[in-house]
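Journal club prep — side note

Before the paper discussion, L.F. wants everyone to see what a predicted structure for a comparable chain looks like in token form. Sequence:
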Amino acid sequence: MLSGYRHYFQQTAHTGESPGEVLNRQASRVRSWVSLSAWTTNVSDFRQSPKMRVKHGERKGGQMMRLPKTLVTFVIHSIVAIVVLFEGTLSFAGGRVPRPQKQVVILFTHRTLTPINADWDRGIRASLAAEFDEPVDIEIEYLNLVRHQDAEYVRSWIDLLKTKYATRPPDVVIPVYVPALQFTIENREVLFPKSSIVFCSAPPLMAQSAHSLPHVTGVAFRLDYSGTLSVAMKSHPDRKRLILLSGISAPERAATKAAQEAIRSLNTGLEVETWEGLPMSLLIKKLQTDAEKTFVLMLTYDEDSEGNHYSTVEVIEQLASQCSVPVYGLYDTLLGHGIVGGSLGSAESQGLLAGRQAVRVLKGESPEQIAIEGLNSAKYKFDARQLNRWQLVESHLPPDSLVLFRETTFWGQYGHYVLLSLIAFLLQSAIIVALLVNRSRRVQAEQEARALAGKILTAQEDERRFLAREMHDDLSQRLAASAIKAGNLEQLVRGSPESMSAVGVLKEHLVTLCDDVHRLSRRIHSSILDDFGLADAIRSECVRFEERNGTPVEFRCGDLPSNIPYDVTLCLYRIAQESLWNTTKYACTDRVLVELNADPEFLHLELQDFGRGFDTTLAANHQGLGLASMSERARLVRGKIEIASSPGQGVTVSVQIPLPEDLE
């Protein structure tokens, strides 16, 4: 045991506590397991139980020998001391003493689960959780002092709280609202003599009085009658009658008296009536009868004259649904249940402030140094649904008013989606318009290019016609005349064989040159196309090709419309002419097939040789002037041309040109 004592006191250096403080703390922990006083008080009963009887020597007269009372008491106290020492030794084995968890006791005035209790509780817990770094043991007591004020009920609460917190007094007590604060202050020395008190939601005078006591601070409230009534009077200028609604519990009577005095001092000019504790059925009936020219200011309504109990929220909801009278309030707990609004105090905000003050106390700050807060915390808040019901305009509300419970409209719920869709639609429309404009410009450019190409080809044909005419009418005639003169000269030099031979050679050259010029003029511009049409012109070209090259040409021609446009006939003739010319230069074929046909929609021209062919992929990258000219001619008349070939397989040129719808 001595080693236990030595170890116990050596370890106090690690905690900063005196040995006496350590022993007191450990003894307190032991007392929380068993009640030592109960042991010593009931020692006689303990000794006298049959199981605890002790034999001492022989039976004398049927009586058992009993241990002395002082001896039993000494043994019990010794056992407790040993338990304390060993418990302390074990707890010090880890090298430190666990720090006890802070405890906060919240005393609510009202019964459990009332809406205003929920608001206060939410605010207090939010501050404790957000601003205190350690876990806090929160105990909640619902005193229900509004409904029960009799001495026996209060005494039962005193006994319960005294027993419950005797072994572990709370660090901070938070009494909420007037009755709970009065109860705490009056019974503080019995219940919480060493605890700090942080009250929540006390009237100004009571708050100042409580704050003058040691280790007391808190949060006060001031009801803004002036702000609420000014809004109500401005919103309903034709309503000159004000009804104050309140219950008849003791706290409510005090609040009603304070409200009457405050309203009387405002000189509003209103006809003010006070209805206290009317049963619900009578209250609704009277409001339905006297609704015109009237508006209501609800205080609290916890109890009526028949002893029925309510929550103020329940009363407000029934009034809003069954009476045509605007109801204003002083607490935001009622907002959303039927009141229009007003300058409203917030139970949750009061709870937040009280929680923050409790945190400051838990961190070691003296309550006397913490000033009272919350007196001017009322804010203008309104229910949008009630504003719509009474046709009130938001712009007429006080500045910085908060309007809640707006009914969700389609635009309010989906407006951003509609806006995004509209923006996307506009962007898509802009892109489509840009593409259409670009396409229109491209089509216009193509039309201009086609028109320009057509003009170039027309000018080329005109130039060819002019050259062919000049060659035929001028150059051919002069060459023919020169050949005739050479023939005449040949007659004159008949006597000289050498001269005659030279002149004969000259005449033959002139005749050949004349034929070449004539043939070239026909190639440049064939008058047969103008005179006999497309089929004869192509047939004539095939005949000349066969005569010139000696390669057989098979020409097949179907039925053609009689009035084919000249630009179409010229296109097909030039393509056939160019294809035959390319065959002459590159094909090395032994025969050529030319087909000309028509159907109701298209003219078809196909030229096929059976020569050596070529690689079309290479030709596409090195397209000559002839192929380009053929493609351009087909494009100008909205036709298309295809060239199919492969090495050793010959070449097939297919042309398809649409016909006008009015052709026969």
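L.F.'s comment for the group: The first strand starts at residue 102 and ends at 108. Keep this in mind when we get to the figures.
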